[in-house]
UniProtKB/TrEMBL annotation:
UniProt-listed SUPFAM superfamilies: P-loop containing nucleoside triphosphate hydrolases (SSF52540)
UniProt entry keywords in alphabetical sequence: ATP-binding, Nucleotide-binding, Transport
A Pfam family recorded for this sequence: ABC_tran
Domain ABC transporter: 4-230
Organism lineage string: Bacteria, Bacillati, Actinomycetota, Actinomycetes, Micrococcales
GO MF: ATP binding; ATP hydrolysis activity
Xref: InterPro entries: AAA+_ATPase, ABC_transporter-like_ATP-bd, ABC_transporter-like_CS, P-loop_NTPase
Family, similarity comment: Belongs to the ABC transporter superfamily.
Protein name, as recorded: ABC-2 type transport system ATP-binding protein
Amino acid sequence: MTDLVLDDVSRWYGNVVAVNDVSMTIGPGVTGLLGPNGAGKSTLIALMSGFLAPSAGAVTLDGQPVWRNPSVYSRLGLVPEREVSFSYLTGRQLVQASAELHRLRDPRTATRRALEEVDLVDAADRAISTYSKGMRQRAKLASALVHEPEVLLLDEPFNGVDPRQRMHLMELLTRMGEAGRTVLFSSHILEEVEHIARHVEVVVSGRHAASGDFGAIRRLMTDRPTRYTVRSSDDRRLAAALMAHPGVRGVGLEAPTGATELHVEVTDMGAFARALPALARSEGITVRELTPTDESLESVFTYLVQS
Ligand SMILES: Nc1ncnc2c1ncn2[C@@H]1O[C@H](COP(=O)(O)OP(=O)(O)OP(=O)(O)O)[C@@H](O)[C@H]1O
């Protein structure tokens, strides 16, 4: 078992609190670190990989502090968000350089094995500058894997990667999680996390907002009050009918541009979406449009932090 543990960890940069009193345990399998931009995901990954000292609290790997502890570094692999600076190198040269930095006994064999693991053998002797974004991610992954770490940390690995390559990368991470590795990747996109993460940790504004399997996180996100704008053949009548509906928390009628707009706040969006057509039909009203008005991930995250 390999557990990466964060214990009341905070990190500030001057007056900016990037990570605020976060505690979490990352175990074997694939974990998604989900949060909007600026939530503190990169800072958390830098803290977990020993690149950054916590301002308070501790990060440990199986009880050993990660910060300033070279014996722990050899058990960690990091795939950073930034691109490889030396893109004139071939994939093989990049991975071998990493193998040599780790002072592996047989860097050539380790390099070959890592390139095989990420399916980059055919392109291994081409310059990285000729690679697609997905191939560059796999080259970075091979270089992070060359010393066979138990823990793999990836910062936004799917950003800018085309759908086919993304699928490929997801399969690789799934395979590594199934093989017993502790794999954590950050993302601001719910669907990416849904695809492969066994476990999800949500961070918002530097704080730990939620934790659980994907179903639990998805339920937290959908069982929240949601607002819709409705356009229909008779907004006033529909507003009156909706007010009597138990799942409706509030109804408002506005006419910003002359035409009326009906705003509805509901407690259970699934139940509301199912009930609305029957309700409209019984009143003889035609619903023309139903638009969620606060479906951005930011608003979901904000709700999670408040709850
Ligand atoms: N070196 C730094 N100096 C000052 N502030 C920083 C520094 N690095 C990060 N921050 C701030 O800390 C907060 C968290 O940033 P971080 O990059 O960890 O978030 P993130 O979730 O990874 O976001 P993104 O996905 O946009 O990179 C942000 O407010 C950011 O501006």
